[in-house]
Amino acid sequence: MALDQLLLAAAPWLGWSGLALVMLTLVAFLASWGLRFRLVGVSSFTLLLAVSCWAFGVSYTPPVVIEGAVRAPIVFDNGNDLVVAQASVDLDDAAVGATLEQLAGNLRGSGRASSSVVVRLRGIRQASDGLGRPVILGEITRDFSG
Question: What is the pLDDT of residue 115?
C-alpha cells in the first residue's frame, strides 16, 4: 500500500479512536478519576494525529520516476534559478536526458525567487594527477510559471 493511501486509511481510525478517548475523558472528569488529565493529553494527541495523517495524505505527491534515469545527487542549489547535480562522466545521452528530466520533475517551485530553474548535470573528468575538471553533461530548464 502506498504511503498516501495508508495515511488516508489510518486517519478515520485515529479520528474515531480520538473521539472514543474524548468520551472516556469526559467520564473520567465526571467520576473524578486520577488519570483524567492524562486522558486529556492522550485524546488530544490522538485527534492531532488523525488530522495530521489526513492532511499529509491529501497533500503528498510521489516523486517523479523516469525510466532510464540514474541517481544523481544535487550538489548545488542556490535556491533561485540554478541546480547542479553530480553524475559519472561516462553516461550515455539517453541516460543524461532521462536523469535531467527526473531531476527537473522532482523540483518544487515554492520558495524560489525565479519562475524558471536551470538544472545542470555535471561530471568530474580527471585532468591530471589528483586533479579533476568539471564537465557539463547536459542542461534543462524547468519553468514554474505555468
Answer: 85
